[in-house]
Amino acid sequence: MTIIPRIKAFVAEFHIMKRACALVRELSPGYLEFNLIKSLLDATVPFIAIYVAALIIDELVGDKNLNVLLVYVTLSVGGTAFFTIITLFLTKKIDVLNAMFIIRIKKYLNDKKYSMDYAMHENPKYTELHAKIVEVMFLTNGGMSSVTKLLSDICHHLISLTIATGILIVSSLDTSTVDGSFSWVSILFFILTLAVIVISVFFSARNSKIVGEKEYNLTQNSSTNKYLDYYHYHYMEDDQAGKDIHLFNQRKLIIGEVLSKGRLPWMKVLNGRYSLHQKYFGMNVLISTFVGGYAYIYVGLRALAGHITLGSVIKSYASITILIFNINELFIALSQVKSNNRYLRSFFEFIDATSEQQSDKQLRIKNCETWEVVFHNVSFRYPNSDDYVIKNVSMKITSNRRVAIVGMNGSGKTTVIKLLCGLYQPDEGCITLNGKDIRDYDNEEYLKLFNVVFQDFQLLSLPIGENIAASRDYDDDKVWKSLEVAGIDDYVRGLPHKLKQPIYKYVHAYGINLSGGEEQKMAIARAHYKNAPFVILDEPTAALDPVAEFDIYNRFNEMIDNKAAVFISHRLSSCKFCDTIYVFDHGVLIQKGCHEKLCKDTAGKYYELWNAQAQYYS
Ligand SMILES: Nc1ncnc2c1ncn2[C@@H]1O[C@H](COP(=O)(O)OP(=O)(O)OP(=O)(O)O)[C@@H](O)[C@H]1O
Question: Which regions span the lipid bilayer (predicted)?
């Protein structure tokens, strides 16, 4: 690479680090600054100690003045105590700020994740990116987690080598001997010292660069931590998985999986790193040893020739070794910055990902009496997939009408709901709300129109009232009404803390565990509380016993009122009462009409499904 592209590349790396530092400062004010102050102390204190030691030795060898010696010793002991206390204070402060940084960066990432469009959120490109960021940051302490340390290390090494260079230049250029005569030998040694340092710098830089590249490739080619992370920290930690782990003896399978795809390849990566460090940093150590030997000869000869005092011997020797050590470490840190910046690029790619659905949406949603959503020849395929899962679908959902969507597993029912709610956008055709393309509406406002109970709904480990209202503030009467509609009010009245009773034990030890049916009733109550103009129930009664199912279907009328309702259910008997039934097959809308009309078409899919189910109940 010629010089201009090199400079450009350096500036680009600098800008990424600068942006990362700004984020660290925003998330944990003072964290970076305290680390930098500590680096400054860590770098300067050894020199002060060496300087005072040199003064003491020169005094011992020279004038032997007890008062002066006392001052030096007091300086040395007092200084050490003072800096130790400051370092202790800084370390504690940094620990606290580090903990704050970790908590806030997790929140920052989650905020970003959940402010993305749902389509982006589910897009494998972004899920992969997010997984990699989390893996690097929280399992290997890289990416944003290592920005502060790297910057502090660089500052430490730069300060150390600046001071060491200063001391060396001053002592080497002091070409006058102790007795005042001039020596050309000193000049020669100074040039030789420079040459030794330049050679050492060259090898350190080269080796660090090689290690940086190879190390990045090693970790990049392995996604092993994902296995460790998923199985150890998610699946095995999830109480819900407990039954399956026990009953299907999954432990053995998981241990095998973790071992073969996680731990063993990860050990390979670690061993690879170890070999790299051994080989290349071993070379650096050899060079340092050589330079150390040279420093002994150089300083020793100057002392023997009477060019420098015994105190200067200590200062010069320490300066050369500190200089070489810090040059090595500086290049290692710089190569780490370069590798780490690749992770930072991924991090910022994720943070900068812009929501397509949120862009230039001006249209506000006005309250109105009746609502109508129409699918116009809609086709759709999931991101990164070639196959259409919804093909040329046209259908209508309006206020005061009940609609059912039926079909075999995988026929596209849930996908239709995701499209209806604006979680995904059609690839072909369009969906309109009251005549206007839903893409033109503000996405957040549009989402508020829908009350959905998905099959895989999630309740929170929070009090029941907060779960139902999806808020910390709620209207008690409204919550009780929603619980009554869902048929679970009596159960909640019997609980010790009523609406304040937490669900699950993840957060509260006195939280309660709910049965599948009770959870489903809670989800229905939550949907009722939201009171939106569209009610969508995806298998809303799958976990309910027949009595509860019958009971809740009777109450749905109250819940739905004059709203638009969409039911998805494999129990066709529960769809019978709908005004229109849409029948899907492999993503195609193949039939529509009321139950009676569809049953008359004896060659149709609906008749086949209805009869197949009726057989089991006859
Ligand atoms: N996030 C996704 N990414 C890629 N493909 C998906 C995704 N979600 C669903 N699919 C695929 O889309 C097709 C339709 O799925 P969908 O969940 O809409 O079917 P369904 O009719 O609701 O099924 P079921 O009755 O089993 O709930 C399936 O083949 C499924 O594999």
Answer: 40-57, 69-90, 154-173, 185-205, 280-297, 317-337
